[in-house]
Amino acid sequence: MRYVILVLGIIISLHFILSFSHEDYGRATSISNLKNTITGAASHQPPYKAGVPEDYYYHSNGTAPGPRANAAFVILARNSDLNGIVFSMKQMEDRFNKKFQYPYVFLNDDDFSDEFKRRITALTDAKVEFGKIPRDHWYQPDWIDEEKASKARDEMVKAQVIYGGSVPYRNMCRFNSGFFFRHELLDKYKYYWRIEPDVNFYCDLDYDPFLIMQNEKKVYGFTVSLYEYETTIPTLWDAVKGDTIIPSCSLVRSDRPPEFMDENPDMLQEGNALGFISDDAGGTYNRCHFWSNFEIGDLDLWRSDAYMKFFEHLDKKGGFYYERWGDAPVHSIGAALFAKKEQIHFFNDIGYKHNPFQHCPQGDAHTKGKCWCDPSDNFDYHWYSCLARYDKMFT
């Protein structure tokens, strides 16, 4: 009996030593984390429903102690966006970054003005870098058939498709889909948080979402999900799936040229999130996507061989210009195919609005975050939202 007590004493002592000397071990074995793991597994709920362990929170004022992830905010902007960027960035600083001091990377297809730099750097004590986008990453490629692209734009204008006639919008979608993560200023970072002009951040964020991404092995985070306009992506899924027969999908092969899945069937991640983007096991695309104006992500997802081949295949199809493929469906399909479903995270407690849709945390999350959005104005389970499809993957 004495030896049993002695062994137990040694084990308990080692546990406490490791808890204090190794933060990841302490967090993984904390009571709150074990409770969340147990209850989440037992209830078959989406992981976000377990909440963020209290260990992550820092409720005091001043700079939060502890480790930081290798991360930065990424903001694509023009000089004319200055006031809108100031509006968004001031909220981010007040609600989160004054405590955590993550750096900012601003990207522009032109040179930033001195006024832009002066007003931006005055808002934060964090590091700020300004970069120019390489010309071949931004502008419509020379190999695009402009006559065909122009005709497609004219047809979309007649159909009143939003941004249907805009070439700069298409440039932006292509850049965000396949090039932003290649910019030299982002080479040193692993995680990013995308911020747009004129958005609202409604809640105090007293924990570090980058550490959630890092410690929980998440690769993509969102706050709003919805359906894409069908007229903007009529051939996108054809270019992805081709004639590949996915298990449970009964669609048969045809004699079309091979598409991405035909050529790369081994690149799909086991346990992926295909159920979010397709209601028939990959036969068709249901048009659900994560609204990419808010993204917290792992840059290595986009840098991976699978995603790079995926983007290059889509880019060669010309759909960014012959149609109006957006970075939201492209990123969403990529994340759904190349990540495990548990690696895609809904940040339920981050109140956010990009006009016209907003996510407003509910119940205790609204109270804990001191949110100033109206809880009744919440897009989560609106008929045009895809959050219910995300939830369904885990039930």
Automatic annotation (TrEMBL):
Record keywords, A-Z: Signal, Transferase
One Pfam family matching this protein: Glyco_transf_15
InterPro entries in the record: Glyco_trans_15, Nucleotide-diphossugar_trans
Cleaved signal peptide residues: 1-19
Family to which the UniProt record says this protein belongs: Belongs to the glycosyltransferase 15 family.
Official protein name in the record: Glycosyltransferase family 15 protein
Species this chain originates from: Somion occarium
